[in-house]
Amino acid sequence: MIQSVEVMRQSTPLKKPFKTALRTVYSTESIIVRIQSNDGRVGWGEAPATIVITGDSLDSIHSAIVHTFTPLLVGKSLLAYERILQEIHQSMIGSSSAKAAVDMAIYDLVAQHCGLPLYQFLGGYKDQIETDFTVSVNSPKEMGEDAVRYVQEGFNVLKIKVGKDDILEDIERIKEIRRCIGSSVKIRIDANQGWQVKDAIRTIRRMEDLGLDIELVEQPVKAGDIEGLKMVTDHVETPIMADESVFSPIQAFEVLKSRAADLINIKLMKSGGIYKAQIINHIAEEFGVECMVGSMIESRVAVTAAAHLAASKKNITRCDFDAPLMMLQDIVVGGVKYDGRVMTFPKASGLGILDVVPSQSPVGS
C-alpha cells in the first residue's frame, strides 16, 4: 500500500551547454519523486522541465503531483497498479512529465514487490544496452572537435543536432563531422523540427549524394505536420524517425497508419511513463516499425527507468541515454551504470536506485 509521496527539486549544471534547434540548456532541472509503501520500500521517479517540447514547467509538474496525483495514490494497493495508472492518466489532461515521474516510481515499487529488476518484470529481452552520444549544434569546426572527443571516449554512434541555421550550414556540419571521425562511426541527425518540408528533402538528398552515410534523420519538420513528415519520408532513402510528432499511442497509430515515418522515438516524458510507452512500442511492433527510447536532459533517475524499458523489449533497437554523462555531478546512488557506451543494470529489484541526493531540499509532499 502507498504510504507517502515526497517531491524534491534538483538542479545540476552541465559540463557544456546543450544546444538544439529548440533551446539551449545549461543545467538539468527536474522534480524528483519519492513514493514510499507501508512496508518501507521506496520507488523513485523524475520529471525534467522541458517547456518547449512537453509544455511542462517545474511548477506545473510539482503542482500536478502534489495536488492531483498524491490524493489518488496514498492508501492505494500497489497490486492494483493498472487501476492506479489508469486513474493517473484520466485525472488530468496533459502533464505528461508529471505522470511519467509517478509512473516510474510505481513500476519501481511493483517490481521490488515481485523481487525482479524492472527490465525483467517488463519482459527481460536483454540485460545490457548501448547509448549514442549527442553533438550539440555549434559551428562545424566545434562540432567536429566534439565528435572526435566522443569517439575517443568509446562512442560508436553519434546523434548530431542540426536545424538551427540555414540548410547549407547543416550540410557543412555533417561534412566536417564525417571528415573528422571517418566512416566507421554511425551518424544520426536530429533536426528538432528545424527544417521546412522541401528544405528537409533537399538537405537529406544532398547528404545522400555526398555519401555522408546517415543512419536516420529524426523529426525533420514541425511536430504537427504529419503530411509533411510523410512527404519527407516518401522522398528520401534515409530512414526518418518521428519524435515530437508522437506523444500518445493514438498519435503513434496515426503516424504508423499513414506510413509517415520509418521509426518512432519513445520518451517517457512524452508518453506519460512506462505504461503508455509500452503501448506505443507494441503498436509500432505490429506495424513492423522499430523504436528508439530516448530521454530529455534528465538525471540517472529517469534515464534508469527508460533504460529498463529499453532493455525489456525486442522491438526497441536504439537508445539515446547520454544526458547523465553531460552532468557535472551524479545525484543518484545505484541505478543503471555506464561503462563508456555500454549500460548495465544492478541485480537489485525495481530500478535498483538506493538513494537520490538532489542539490536542493524537498519542496512539498
UniProtKB/TrEMBL annotation:
Matches recorded under Gene3D superfamilies: Enolase-like C-terminal domain, Enolase-like, N-terminal domain
Keywords assigned: Isomerase, Magnesium, Metal-binding
Cofactor info, note text: Binds 1 Mg(2+) ion per subunit.
Enzyme category, top tier: isomerase
InterPro entries membership: Dipeptide_epimerase, Enolase-like_C_sf, Enolase-like_N, Enolase_C-like, Mandelate_racemase_C, Mandelate_racemase_N_dom
UniProt name for this protein: Dipeptide epimerase
Family statement drawn from the similarity comment of this UniProt entry: Belongs to the mandelate racemase/muconate lactonizing enzyme family.
One Pfam family matching this protein: MR_MLE_C
Keyword Isomerase: yes
Cofactors: Mg(2+)
EC number: 5.1.1.-
Mandelate racemase/muconate lactonizing enzyme C-terminal domain mapped to chain residues: 140-239
SMART domains reported for this sequence: MR_MLE
